[in-house]
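Data availability (excerpt). The following record was deposited with the supplementary files.
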Amino acid sequence: MRRIGILTFHRACNYGAALQAYALYSVVRKLLADDTAVEVVDYLCDHLESVYNPFRLPDQSGRFALIKKTIRFALHYREKSFSLKAFQKFRKKYLLLSKQYSLSDIERSVNNYDMFIVGSDQIWNMDLTKGDATYFLNFETAKTKKCSYAASFGSPLSFQEHSSEIVSYLNDFCEVSLREKIGVNVLSKSLRCPIHTDLDPTLLLRRHDWEVISSESASNFRGKYILLYIVAPPKDLIEFAKELELITGYKVVMLCNSFKIGRGFKRLRRQTPADFINLVANAEVVLTTSFHGLAFSIIFHRKFVVEVQSTDSTNYRIESLLQALGLEDRILTESSLKSYHSSIDWLRIDDLLNDERQKSISYLRSITSFNRRK
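Predicted structure:
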């Protein structure tokens, strides 16, 4: 029996991270022959575990600041604890996980697999992982095949800062698949293996696939609403949401981890991954700073407006997908109210997605066939 291990951000208490992990695992499992099995490598990245740990005490940065952070920690502990348990339940139900590994023993996992697939999401954003090179499989893998699927560097700046290190890590990969075109030129010149660009895994599944999960949602929110889904800190999206609420009469409901943003809007608390899909699927319009907020809006043919420029960065991942689909007019600008009222040619979008979906699935079928070895 051949075995494939998927290494990704499956443990993050983040809707996009959890759902892309499920999508990739689901698609690969369907493609495999009877003599091949797949599981998600249950790797605990120290930094990411710390970020999503509800028991983590605030950093000490002065007495007064510490008191404020401790009070905030106590107030929001229950919500963070609920989120942790909800995502644990999702993983247990939808993913086949390996035994747990940490940085100190991840190298031992190589004995269990004939192939690693790393991806998708920002697994190669070294600023995000605080330099954890495990996601580059930087340990001795002997005869185990190394490939990636739709891995993301996050931003051009992050890639540029770490490019020489990244190239050295990827030298023994059989195939490299990226989600965006960031780094394609450099890697094509520096590596001997093929470089591909492929769809985010969430877009490999179709609407009816996601409806199976969303049907488990216990959310009973009723009425027409605007979903405001915030991940990156917004710059102008909050004011646009207020304006759109006044014009349409639709109530704004908000999903956001920050408790400082969007005061005055109805904040939805304790939402599971199934609830998230359901909320996007039934929204009249989605306003978001999130790549996966955009991806699910496209899957469910929802009207949407996205903010690419947040208060601290530019979301090149969103820009890349919008450019590929010819939907740049959905980026928040001064004329976004006009573009909101214009219709989206979903037949054209679906045709483009179907072509890209077939290309991406063909790539996965090719690398999991074990016909090519390093």
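Summary of structural features: Residues 111 and 264 are 54 Å apart (CA to CA).
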